[in-house]
Design goal:
The chain is about 0% helix and about 70% strand. It has no helices and six strands. The strands form two sheets. It has a four-stranded antiparallel sheet, with no helix packed on it. The chain has a two-stranded antiparallel ribbon with strand order 1-4. Strand 5 and strand 6 form a beta hairpin.
């Protein structure tokens, strides 16, 4: 198994429901990593660990996105 680990910083204006997603170079969702109920307003950082065994090599991003579609944080990664 091949894992990719790291952390992504995010900033929220107001309490929000959010998802941490793995996206490809075109911004398409490849994998849902985790869901957050009502993250607090302000700056934060959250860790991730992705099983990359089934993923093609290439450039991706770990994105924290609100339910409304706002991107609160993003971290480019290479697999």
């Amino acid at each position: 198994m091949q894992f990719v680990e790291g952390s992504v910083a995010f900033a929220s204006k107001g309490d929000k429901d959010c998802a941490m997603l793995l996206t490809d170079e075109q911004g398409n969702v490849v994998k849902m990593i985790r869901y957050f109920d009502q993250i607090s307003s302000g700056d934060g950082e959250t860790k991730f660990k992705i099983d990359a065994t089934q993923l093609s090599k290439g450039n991706y991003a770990v994105v924290v996105k609100s339910r409304e579609g706002d991107i609160l944080g993003s971290l480019p990664i290479e697999i």
